[in-house]
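Box 3.1 A note on notation
Throughout this textbook, protein chains are presented in two layers. The first layer is the amino acid sequence; the second is a token string describing backbone geometry. Keep the layers aligned when reading.
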Amino acid sequence: MTSPEVKVESPVSVTETITISDNSLPESLNLKPETSSIKSETTSISALSMSSIRAKKELLESQKGIIKEVTQFPTEVFTETEMLDFWFKYAQRLNDKGLMIMASLLRISDPKLDGFKIIYELPNEGSKIDFEKEKNELLGYLRGHLHNHELSIDVVVNENVKSKVAFTAQDKYNRLNEINPHLEELKRLFDLDL
């Protein structure tokens, strides 16, 4: 004698198989599932049945009408002088916090600006690795203060880079004059001895 199988399906896509061994079922036993009181709270859909595929397609159609807000980050134009100013302010900030290695890496050479890309040369691979560890924080600082989120930094290893650390007052003046050529005009205008 074979036992009839009854499948009960719920809207949550769970299938149960019940095997009944006795053919004498009471009339009062209702084997139909109640679907009106069960509601699915999640939007996960199984891909194992045709009704699930249809439900997934309907869900995708309903999501097409949802408008996603696109955030526009600022992309203001800035000069190389402004970039150098914030670059060295960040280096000084690191120096004040006691992070001397990164501060000295930022002062090894002057970064060059090419559009919104900063090209920075370092003397060896080891300094590049140290710089790359802290690059994201520097990039965030520069993007925030220069109001330009398209800014990027490319690090290039050039073993011919000479350190531009100024030791004497004249070296410091020459270094500042390289960064900002208007310094010479101020010196002449106010007749300063530097």
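Strands lie at 5-9, 15-19, 112-114, 117-122, 152-157. The two ends are 111 Å apart (CA to CA).
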